[in-house]
Amino acid sequence: MTVDGVEVTPEAGETVLAAARRAGVRIPTLCHRDGLHPTGGCGVCTVEDTATGRLLSACATRAEAGMAILTQSAAAAELRRAALELLLGDHPADCEAPCQIACPSGLPVPELLERVAAGQWEEAAALAARHPYVCGGAAPCERACRRAPHGGAVAIAALHRWLAGEGGDAAACVRPPAPKFRSRLSGLTPEELLALSPERGGRQLACDAREVGREEAAYEARRCLQCGCRKPQACQLRMRCAEAGARQRAFPGGVRRTVRETGGGGFRFDSARCVLCGVCVRTAAGLGASVAPAFHGRGFDARVAPPLGRVWSDVAPQVLAACAAACPTGAMTLDKIV
Predict the structure, then answer these.
(1) Bridge partners (DSSP) listed for residue 69
(2) Which end of the chain, N or C, is less surrounded by CB atoms within 10 Å?
(3) 162-201 pLDDT, tens per residue?
(4) Are 54 and 45 a contacting pair, CB within 8 Å?
């Protein structure tokens, strides 16, 4: 068989994906993990066999003599892009929070506010100091805050200035280049947005506040909607979308209800970022876990959750840690705020 013109002899029982790897040809994947039973469900590894004219899932198709595989044919690339765009159609989630994008010093605002809410004052001050306060009274982060129409923006500027001090060197602020793909949160009602915040009350700190107490600082931090992803640079969905040129709103429509839950060992689950790839389900099954993530419902109601009658805290922390490590998106993460 050939893969992009490279000859390779298929071995007994191996997949097209494995044969391509031996030929030195990379095929993108999302739902595949070495050692787990392949499903071929996401469509990201689609290739074309020009010998038969068929489009195949490379991770789940047996390699056979006579195949002439093209990994980047027009038909394969179009199906791959469409598969990603279908996933994005039910992905109401920000890669980076709008406040972080707007901050001239590149402050990771959600992380800072998490640390403040957790009472980690020294860590919060150290993080703020690495991103000097340079915006004066403009507060572009607060103008971008999604909480602004709902009780007022989180008092980000006041907390940043209070923790970092004023007079930072703008020249010392190095912002990373803009990514090729950036998902945006959309499709949620004001009520659904507010449900993402532990604190539903209105703003209490003025933008120019100089004297800030820990209690009011923690209150403001709890008002944050935590829009951003917890692993934006490691999200494989984002990487594949950038490679394929996928568009988030190619298939507009309703989105599933966003649920955020926690479990043992600092585990967090964000349903808005789940693409139902099943990696966590198969990972837990491989570990022999009796209480583990499972699929529930069908069609637009499908979701990943603990078994009926259980919560994430009932799943063993080591199983949750393995699932979070295997998850290709920011749906399952381990809390770095420890």
Answers:
(1) 3, 49
(2) C
(3) 999 876 666 666 677 889 999 999 888 899 899 999 999 9
(4) no
Does residue 338 have a pLDDT over 50?
Answer: no
Is 159 buried (19+), middle (13-18) or exposed (0-12) by CB count in 10 A?
buried
Q: Where is 334: in which H helix or E strand?
A: strand 332-334
Give the β-pairing of 2-3 and 68-70. Answer: parallel
21-39 b/e (C-beta count within 10 Å ≥ 16 → b): bebebebbbbbbbeebebb
DSSP 221: H
| Alpha-carbon distances of 271 from 1, 120, 162, 329, 330, rounded to whole Å | 41, 27, 34, 11, 9
Q: In terms of pTM, does the model score above 0.90?
A: yes
φ, ψ (nearest 5 deg) of residue 168: -70, 160
CB neighbours of 246 closer than 8 A, spacing ≥ 6?
A: 81, 84, 85, 88, 181, 240
For residue 45, give both structure tokens: 């590894």
Task: Please tell me the distance from the alpha carbon of residue 168 to that of residue 172, in angstroms, as a whole number.
Answer: 8
Using CA atoms, how far apart are residues 217 and 159, in angstroms rounded to an integer?
7
**Whether 8 contacts 38, CB under 8 Å:** no
Q: Tell which residue, 234, 236, 183, 240, has the closest CA to residue 46.
A: 240
- Give DSSP secondary structure letters for 236-261: HHHHHHHHHT--TTSS----PPP-EE
DSSP state at residue 169: -
Of 32, 14, 106, 3, the C-alpha closest to 279 is 32
Count of positions (residues) in the chain: 338
Which pLDDT tens digit goes with each residue over 34-50?
Answer: 999 999 889 999 999 99
Query: Is residue 115 within 8 Å of 84, Cβ to Cβ?
Result: no
Q: Could you tell me if 305 and 296 are in contact, meaning their C-beta atoms sit under 8 angstroms apart?
A: yes
